[in-house]
Amino acid sequence: MNAFDRNRVNVHGDAVTVDGASFLCEPLGDGRVRITGPEGARVAWATAEGRRVFVTLDGRDYVFDTGGGSSARRASAHEAASGEVTMPMPGLVISVAVAEGQAVKRGDPLLVVEAMKMEHTLRAPRDGVVRRLAAKNGERVDAGAVLLDVTES
Amino acid sequence: MNAFDRNRVNVHGDAVTVDGASFLCEPLGDGRVRITGPEGARVAWATAEGRRVFVTLDGRDYVFDTGGGSSARRASAHEAASGEVTMPMPGLVISVAVAEGQAVKRGDPLLVVEAMKMEHTLRAPRDGVVRRLAAKNGERVDAGAVLLDVTES
Amino acid sequence: MFRKVLVANRGEIACRVIGTLREHGIGSVAVYSDADAGAVHARRADEAVRIGPAEPRASYLNIEAIVEAARASGAEAIHPGYGFLSENAAFAEAVEKAGLVFIGPTPGQSRGFGDKRLAREAARKAGVPIVPGYEARSEVADRQLATEAGRLGYPVVLKAALGGGGKGMTVVTSDSDLIASAPSARRVALGAFGDGSLYLEKLVEHPRHVEVQLVGNGRGDAVHFFERECSLQRRHQKVLEETRSPGASEKTRLAMAEAAVALARAVQYRGAGTVEFLLAPDEKFYFLEVNTRLQVEHPVTELLTGHDLVWWQLVVAAETTLVTEQSAVQARGHAVEVRVYAEDPASDFLPQAGRLARVVWPRLPFVRVDAGVESGSDVPLHYDPILAKIAAWGPDRETAWARLAAALDETVVHGVVTNIDFLRALTRDPELVAGRFDTTTLESGVIDRYRERAGEPAPAVALAAAAVAEPARAAGGAPAPTRAAADPFATIGNWGRS
Amino acid sequence: MFRKVLVANRGEIACRVIGTLREHGIGSVAVYSDADAGAVHARRADEAVRIGPAEPRASYLNIEAIVEAARASGAEAIHPGYGFLSENAAFAEAVEKAGLVFIGPTPGQSRGFGDKRLAREAARKAGVPIVPGYEARSEVADRQLATEAGRLGYPVVLKAALGGGGKGMTVVTSDSDLIASAPSARRVALGAFGDGSLYLEKLVEHPRHVEVQLVGNGRGDAVHFFERECSLQRRHQKVLEETRSPGASEKTRLAMAEAAVALARAVQYRGAGTVEFLLAPDEKFYFLEVNTRLQVEHPVTELLTGHDLVWWQLVVAAETTLVTEQSAVQARGHAVEVRVYAEDPASDFLPQAGRLARVVWPRLPFVRVDAGVESGSDVPLHYDPILAKIAAWGPDRETAWARLAAALDETVVHGVVTNIDFLRALTRDPELVAGRFDTTTLESGVIDRYRERAGEPAPAVALAAAAVAEPARAAGGAPAPTRAAADPFATIGNWGRS
């Protein structure tokens, strides 16, 4: 249940994918964003300030740390969670750099995909072993499809 | 009593002189200005928008037209008023371009003065005749001193 | 209760309705025209649907587009706000036909109260006093008219039997006057309404305009929320409203409220509505008309009673029931409101349009602001130029008025000329503060007194402030921090006060 | 009335006092430390005077600098706000010595109510119930202490006779417990107060903290403004206050108010003050202490009664008279308030400092916001981290709480972590909404429940919003419109929720 600190977030223009779920994020000015997703539309407030991002949504506040060293990651105790790597947008798998059962370190390149005429490298969300490798070179894949899983070794 | 559309306003940094009265205008951000003058201090709101300036002060709104052709001067019916030309800041009279009794058009150069190491040309506030010419070349003059008057011919 | 509601309006009233929807966890759908793509109401709602070009007919009056927006967004009900389609029976019918709920009266009630003759008849039947009058079919002889006029007592108002207030009315003071005016009045009536019938009505001189807020459950029960004093008008446009009314005794005020409730009960009125009365100096009151919508000035009633009238509307619409009973609606103290318009008091209140470079609303205890714009908002030319309503509450009338005056002093709207400076003068006008006014007062002196004040020269300190003015930071854009006088030593010269 | 008043405080309370001064046309002078040069309160006042460096001791506690600022600016009176010098008798004396008016009680009253023993004695004399207790000089034998404790009935609180609430208190439950604790308590008392005298007091279990607001005219008359329920505290710090109190019958509440007024009359109390009581589950109440200042939580009382307490303070200070009489102070409905702090509920409510990139306060009917910051404001480390108070009024308690919850949902403070998310949870906690709580409730479950909720994973939609977040436009500076993910096709990766 601690997937919150292991989310894969992909942005393409106003389209954002979080763990395979797609959202349309329409900026309304002054920090307001209208987000349309599977559960309908609502307006959020979001502010990037230094390395933190503040979000107010549906009567809840969220503060995200966008990185910069684990020492500052206040949620680090919760790290672990899902190692699934999914397709951020509909597109093509260009190359697969790992094999089933291969041990990887967090941040290692796993595959290169192409979508909207741009190539993108997907990296290991954590240390572990590659399992359920479903991606194949040259394959066309829908957004959200699981490409592989990095499980605890 | 219609001097409001014939005010001479001089600005030097945060110091502003209006018809000889001096004000300290301290910008407070977001359009707020603290104005300290002969009658004490108060906070005004001022916004320049295009050629108009909006001021809210002591429970009154003022809209000033900063120029751009008399056709757009809604207060033009009130034009007339004082033709006095006063010294904007303490300084030196460099040269006097007109003589007593000389007819001038609005905008004609009248004198050149120097203050705070900068030269400045004072122009006729309206059509008329130069009267009460008190300015002399090379004379040191206090702020607010009347240099001459342009009276209706 | 509904899960999602579409608000078929714009500006401050759309924002205000969305606020109540939010408070109760109900999804909100805004609609907007091309002129309002960046408007506050469209950004505040959960969803926003474009309904057409700027012209009202193509957007906010476009029944088909609005019903389709509701259907497409999954809204279950439509709140019409005020103005636009709020009293349009055909709209209510179209909404119901689409299987949605119209938050307002039945189409029959909209239509019935829209017809002045039917409305008068309903009031008469419910025992509500109406101005003594006589309806004369077009074939009635002028002599007969004069007899009836004499019975009513001159001065008498002569108007089309099917007409409302204002249009084509003539005041006649004698038999000969009447006989001279009747033929032309008959022609006007025939031309405007296809019916030459005339209506003679006794003229109520120096009346106040007092109205009673009520909500009916559509099944014969109704609750009132006391009266509102709306006499301060310019060209039949209300400018300042307050409750309670300073112009009537408690006995009269409650009699008006009871009359209004009796009418609502008699017609099984559904939703929020207002019964308007003329109140004569002798405290006799007469039925004027029924507004079958939430009114612009409803906030003063909310401040007085503590009840949220939009919530009452939603509960009636969703559950055909009233939020609570009459005894739970108590008046406390006094509330007063002004309407902030983009209009120039110095140019005969000409509507203004443009970009609001800077907007700062007051934030004071006991002050409520219902606003539809913020810094950077555009004021389009196409719509009513209302920007906001500012209201104040106090334990007594004097305190409420003083708080409103203070709130207006703290209100800053720059970039477009507004009536705020005029409103400030109103809230400090000794006659108005004393409560001594009727529907003619504003136009018979107050405005002239204001013009005089506004014509005074600006004090030097205002010019000093102007001299250091900077453009407001553009919303989202780059700031342009150039002073009006960028030259550190500049004679700005001869500014006109516009 | 005064023509000019200096406000010897900062933040929201300084802004709030300036608001009332403005409303009544009284000139305002703010004071500020170097850390507050750009603070809202210093920009809102007519004049602003620097009084020293950031450290409170050198600025807001600097009596000499503040009195000099008043003298130099021509202010006739000083309003101390709350905290800082507001209950400092030496300050009040210095103000009076400078020929200025201190807006608050006499120095003697500040001093008298600051001394717990004198305060207890004054209450006893005025017939106000005090917790049964026994004062033992340091030479009294432990045996004697035990006898007295037995008479009071265990459990008993053992504390320094000169101490206030909290510090050095021990709860003892038996003779042996008492005899074991007495020597150390005596040492602590001697060390802290230079007097080893002890005070035994019966422990009131599961008390509520209820206080009565009053204003005295300094000549023996006083008016109360009903009670406030302040039981929801964290480490003796109030978090949410409401009026009326849901924890007592009307009879008890009025008895408390009468007791408070009796005390104020007995000492000829001058100005605004609050008498705090412990309220036992059996509805017996006991005097706790008197706060000789305007309190943080005064807005709920203002919403309840419609009276402006700062105006009452000014009128007493200027004219030694009360604004009106007791019968004109009526309670209507219910009001509830929360305090917005820059503190991190996830890190044991650690105070936070920094720049508030974005601040959006709610604007809803019946909601009042007292704020001391806006977008771009700095939150300095040196002072109490209160940012604002958000209060809501309703015709009944349930409505007021629901409106407050809705207002908090509309509140946006970004850039510094705040307790707003925690406050939202409070206003929706079923036990609190039901009114079932005492002074121990917040720390014995509510906070834990919140921590659990806050530990839940952020929903995907929140991350989506975060992914497109942009920096707020800097106040006055250039905007930096770079998204968190500037690359139009970017995997943002693994964000931690901080």
> Mean pLDDT of chain A, as a whole number?
77
Taking all Cα atoms into account, the compactness measure Rg of chain A is 16 Å
Shape of chain A: globular
Adjacency order of strands in the biggest sheet of chain C: 14-13-10-11-12-15-22-20
**Chain pair with largest interface:** A-D, 67 and 52 residues
Q: Considering DSSP H and I runs of 4 or more, what fraction of the residues of chain A is helical?
A: under 10%
Percent helix range of chain C: 25-40%
Task: Give the N-terminus to C-terminus distance of chain A in angstroms.
Answer: 19 Å
Question: Explain this structure to me?
Answer:
The complex is a heterotetramer, with two copies of chain A (153 residues) and two copies of chain C (498 residues). The two termini of chain A are 19 Å apart. The radius of gyration of chain A is 16 Å and the shape is globular. In chain A, strand 1 and strand 2 form a beta hairpin. By secondary structure, chain A is an all-beta fold. Helix content of chain A is 0%, strand content 53%. The N terminus of chain A is likely disordered. In chain A, the strands form three sheets. A seven-stranded antiparallel sheet of chain A has the order 1-2-3-4-5-6-7, with no helix packed on it. A four-stranded antiparallel sheet of chain A has the order 8-15-13-10, with no helix packed on it. The relative contact order of chain A is 0.19. Chain A has no helices and 15 strands. In chain C, the strands form six sheets. An eight-stranded antiparallel sheet of chain C has the order 14-13-10-11-12-15-22-20, with helices on both faces. In chain C, strands 3-2-1-4-5 form a five-stranded parallel sheet. Chain C has 498 residues and is an alpha+beta fold. The longest helix of chain C is centred in the middle third of the chain and has 19 residues. In chain C, helix 4 packs antiparallel against helix 5 and helix 13 packs across helix 15. Classes of the chains: A mainly beta (153), C alpha+beta (498). Chains in contact: A-C, A-D, B-C, B-D, C-D. Chains A and D meet through strand 1, strand 3, strand 4, strand 5 and strand 6 of A and helix 12, helix 13, helix 16, strand 24 and strand 25 of D.
